[in-house]
Amino acid sequence: MTINEEGLLLANAIRSGDRSALAKGITLTESTLIEDRKRADNLLLEILPFSGKSHRIGVTGLPGSGKSTLIEQLGVKALDMGYKVAVLAVDPSSEKSRGSILGDKTRMTSLAVHPDAFIRPSPSGSSRTGIGNRTRECIYLCEAAGFDFLFVETVGVGQVELEVSEICDIVLLLLLPGAGDELQGMKRGSTESADLILVNKADGTTKSSAQITASDYQNALNLVSGLRTRAADVMSISALENLGTTEVLNKIIGLHQKQSNTGEIKTLRSKQCRNWLWRSIKEVIEESMLGGVSMLDIILKLEKDVTLGHITGRIAAQRFVDQYLKSVSEHKT
Length: 333
Known about the structure:
By secondary structure, the protein is an alpha/beta fold. The chain has 3 domains: 1-50, Single alpha-helices involved in coiled-coils or other helix-helix interfaces (Up-down Bundle); 51-262, 3-Layer(aba) Sandwich (Rossmann fold), CATH 3.40.50; 291-332. Helix content is 54%, strand content 12%. It is built from 14 helices and 7 strands. It has helices at 3-15, 19-30, 34-47, 67-80, 104-107, 109-112, 135-144, 182-188, 190-193, 207-223, 245-262, 264-290, 293-307, 313-332, and strands spanning 55-61, 85-91, 117-123, 149-153, 170-175, 196-199, 233-236. Strand 6, helix 10 and strand 7 (233-236) form a beta-alpha-beta unit. Helix 8 packs across helix 10. It is globular. The model is unreliable at 93-101 (pLDDT under 50).
């Protein structure tokens, strides 16, 4: 069986709703093996015409802000409304072992057992953007499988990741009560990418603090409202006690419908695809440059020279590029 035939067969199985085929397709797409990359590219070519018909929702926030709990509550409500829900949960990879715990599925027990829901924990790999290196491609696979409500949960390590806005239509930013000076949040740029800012854990002893934090952020947004075309909504919620989550889901659906009617989603996704192209070009160039053993030897020597202070990083980079172009020229002749 040729690679093209294999890709078509797997694509048809994914489109038919075969969960094991979808899982296989995602595993293939996330693989870093050269042969798997080729097979994944063929699979995605078969899948692309059947993608794009979903609500793509990014959920980001600091560790412990309740992202998984919120996604489960929203996902269950979306299922009750007749949607098919998929969750792509990105877990941080270890710097040493490159492994990940991949525990999000155990935190979304109701979704995990529902026949119209699919949860896929994925390692972040070398990515430091809060999403995986192939999360965008995984979205396409899930859409082709018929899932029309897609959540992407970011890693949640350190400061809030904003890269999720490059692959999603709507971004939810989760904050904790008393999270700090609202103007500091403006400096991080988080509110520039968020469509809904949700101060979670508005229950028990932290209810009042959550409401105050939500009010602070709303006031700060009002001060900088001229920086964006559409101001983000700010709400206090309790994902744990399922308070305010119905309103959040209704806002997501309403905003997505408005974006579709005005053409905003088409414009946004076109811009995202252009950015995807240029990042892919950079990735392919880097892979071709660093793939050969001889080029790896050169980069190791240059790393040593920079570390010892013999040359600057920019000079080393130029020498590397010059050597690479020379090797390409010699290979052609």
